[in-house]
């Protein structure tokens, strides 16, 4: 085990020395203009209103994702979806991605059932959070931890 | 910019007026984040991702999605739709370069 660790260390050291020029470029490169932390993204969505965890929101995501580049998620919300009582929006957030926002979905009563499914990229093991805005202005949420074996950001 | 290939599926295939169907919309799109580096050249790959997807039924908004770069390559969007009668389901999506693409499919409920 010791020897293996040592060899691994050597390998990384070599790799680092080999790619130093390209690393300099990477440091100079501007970060994405959309970068936003989870707290800021949540604040932007709710406007400071409290968010309560609810079992009305069902977030389906794999517990262990082998490939972070493709993580299927599905959010469904229990709601009658009538003109008076419907799901206004479903927001999907990934806590540790450089841009925590994944998707903001605005629904209408014409949807019949509140459902949103997609595939997202995750940079590493983290929580995926679904924040749901109801038509009366309240916010409910559900979250799930997803273990990522290989990150999906480059 | 070449036109993006897209596919709109309605599940199940046979439905009646008043049924809730599932709409699956797939786009062939690279969804570049703008921070990834090309392994061969070491250059940053410029950002290229979808920013907005709209589902319209007979020109009335059903679902609007604001999308960020965190979505996977060749993204899939799933949503539900309650069929009020025959019409046309149109999907319009916009990417960060301003390219707008449309895809429409006829909704033909049986019975």
How does this model look, in words?
The complex is a heterodimer of chains A (154) and B (111). Chain A contains three helices and nine strands. By secondary structure, chain A is α+β, with helices and mostly antiparallel strands. Chain B is mainly beta and 111 residues long. Chain B contains no helices and seven strands. The mean pLDDT of chain B is 90. The A-B interface holds A 21-22, 25-26, 29, 31-32, 34, 69-71, 74, 81, 94, 97-99, 101-108, 110-122, 152-154 and B 20, 22, 31, 33-37, 42-44, 47, 57, 60-73, 75-82, 84.
Top keywords for this entry?
heterodimer, A: 154 residues, alpha+beta, three-stranded antiparallel β-sheet, 39% strand, B: 111 residues, mainly beta, four-stranded antiparallel β-sheet
Secondary structure layout plus pairing:
The complex is a heterodimer of chains A (154) and B (111).
Chain A: H1 2-18, H2 20-28, H3 38-46, E1 51-53, E2 57-60, E3 64-67, E4 71-77, E5 87-94, E6 101-106, E7 114-120, E8 126-134, E9 139-150
Parallel strand pairs in A: 1-9, 3-9
Antiparallel strand pairs in A: 2-4, 4-7, 5-6, 5-8, 8-9
Chain B: E1 6-11, E2 20-27, E3 50-57, E4 60-67, E5 76-82, E6 87-95, E7 100-107
Antiparallel strand pairs in B: 1-2, 2-5, 3-4, 3-6, 6-7
Total strands of chain A: 9
Radius of gyration of chain B: 16 Å
- Beta content of chain A: 35-45%
Cα-based radius of gyration of chain A, to the nearest Å? 20 Å
Percentage of residues in helical conformation of chain B: under 10%
β-strand percent of chain B reads over 45%
Name the overall outline of chain B: elongated
Structural class of chain A: alpha+beta
Q: What is the structural class of chain B?
A: mainly beta
The SSE string of chain A, one letter per element, is HHHEEEEEEEEE
Oligomer: heterodimer
Average pLDDT of chain B works out at 90
Spatial order of strands in the largest sheet of chain B: 4-3-6-7
Molecular shape of chain A = elongated
Compressed to H and E, one letter per element, the order of chain B equals: EEEEEEE
Q: Whole-Å distance between the termini of chain A?
A: 29 Å
**Fraction of residues in H or I helices of chain A:** 10-25%
Q: How many angstroms does the end-to-end distance of chain B come to? A: 42 Å
